[in-house]
Amino acid sequence: MTQERSATIARLRGPGYVVLPAPAARVALELDVPGLEALRGSWERLPRDAHLRDGGRYRARRHGSFVHTLAPTVLEAVPHRPHWQPTSYNALHGGLTRWFEPIESEVSGAPAWRQLLIAIGEVFAQLQPVARWFVEAHQFRIDTADGIGRPTPEGAHRDGVDFVAIVLVARRHVHGGETRVFDAGGASGVRFTMHEPWSMLLMDDARVIHETTPIQPHGSAGVRDTLVITYRAGGFQDP
């Protein structure tokens, strides 16, 4: 294990989260950045989220599910399935069986994509040893075409999984989008804004809650593109 990855695990083990600027993420996770950059165009093709209960049209997304076996290392896509969360974790959209369009096969099958999901899973497995992770990946685009875009319309929340990674893919022509992470059992927390593609936030979902503030256009209509990846032991969340 590299020194950079060990330091990332140590920081995550401390307060339950770690913010990795893009250069640190690249080294700690040995990212194939050119390969990831080649996937950024897929965020231009995300279909609208038809399940927003606030009536908004500011979010587009795709969703995919995978099983990451740790030894030997295998990442397998599973047949397309819905996304579901209980109301105890998502008061706005919990209890809904939400079907989203699947992640494009040229994205989910790309070596850089697979390497990213595996590397993050390996980091989390150092904090919670498991035989396999049940992984859900969400490509999000939040836009300001109608004014304000809300990255987390449900507010500050946990996801009901073991670990979460939020990866910034692109950000342009927007104000706002400040990420906030707070101790789930206390009042301490941090606030920061990710600007550079492939910077990321890794979190222990049992220990912290998180949210991202709304974005507003800065000049021309803006967008904030992210990849959210959740890791859960024991199975996917189901009704």
Topology:
Elements lengths: L2 H11 L3 E4 L1 H7 L4 H5 L21 E11 L4 E4 L27 H4 L2 H17 L4 E12 L19 E10 L1 E3 L2 E5 L5 E4 L7 E5 L3 E5 L2 E3 L5 E10 L7
Antiparallel strand pairs: 1-9, 2-3, 2-4, 4-12, 5-9, 5-12, 6-11, 7-8, 7-10
Helix pairs in contact: 1-5
CATH domain topology: Jelly Rolls
Distance between the termini: 38 Å
Number of domains: 1
Query: In the CATH hierarchy, what is the superfamily?
Result: q2cbj1_9rhob like domain
What does this structure look like?
The N and C termini lie far apart (38 Å). With 239 residues, the protein is α+β, with helices and mostly antiparallel strands. A hairpin with a 4-residue loop joins strand 2 and strand 3 (74-77). It has helices at 3-13, 22-28, 33-37, 105-108, 111-127; strands spanning 17-20, 59-69, 74-77, 132-143, 163-172, 174-176, 179-183, 189-192, 200-204, 208-212, 215-217, 223-232. It is 18% helix and 32% strand. Helix 1 packs across helix 5. The protein has a single domain (3-232), classed as Sandwich (Jelly Rolls). It is globular, with a radius of gyration of 17 Å. The chain is built from 5 helices and 12 strands. The mean pLDDT is 93. The longest helix is centred in the middle third of the chain and has 17 residues, at 111-127. The protein has a 7-stranded antiparallel beta sheet.
